[in-house]
Amino acid sequence: MLLVTDIETFYGRSQVLFSVSLEVGPGEVVTVMGRNGMGKTTLLRSILGLTPPKAGSIRFEGKELKNKPSYSVARAGIALVPEGRQIFPTLTVRENLVATAANRSSLSNPWTLESVFELFPRLEERKNLHGRSLSGGEQQMLAIGRALMTNSKLLILDDATEGLAPLVCIEIWKCLKQLKEAGQAILVVDRNLEALMRIADNHYIMEKGRFVWSGTSAELASQPDLIQRYLGV
166-181 vs 136-148: helix axis angle to the nearest 10? Predict the structure, then answer.
């Protein structure tokens, strides 16, 4: 579905990504892990057309997305749950969801207000509240729901549970597990190694703008030294 090949991304003259390649297949959950400042968010921004790479290729369902504007990437079927959530603070929960609603892929069973509220009952309880009135966890649920309402083929989450209370994190991971079981392809950046290893098919570890390892959860679990070297505090 998504094939990233040898991309190199810069901020001005400073190179951040060095020959980075990644794959996400239909229905797969793929993670990108690494310490802060290693280039994970830059990789997502490169895929989404927000910080276009200067070299390499980004293909989605066979179509080249490199150098395409971000709205074209979204229309191709990629949705982002951004770091910091970035919901519309002066719109209600319902308005936040309706504002992004689309079914450009003509899915036979698209996401609707009702199905998002079924996934996140707390949002239905707060549907008439403004975004700024929600807790951090509720805002993250809303950010996920807003992305789902675009009926994308690939869902990207940047820092999926950063700064959230433990009970809320459990709810978010439960939601992502349900989405995977429904066949949703997901690319996720997060630090919760245990949760990621439970739901993901494949993992990539990034260090200083390069992938230094990739493999399955079983392969990662068998290499505690590698986990400590690249992911330990």
Answer: 10
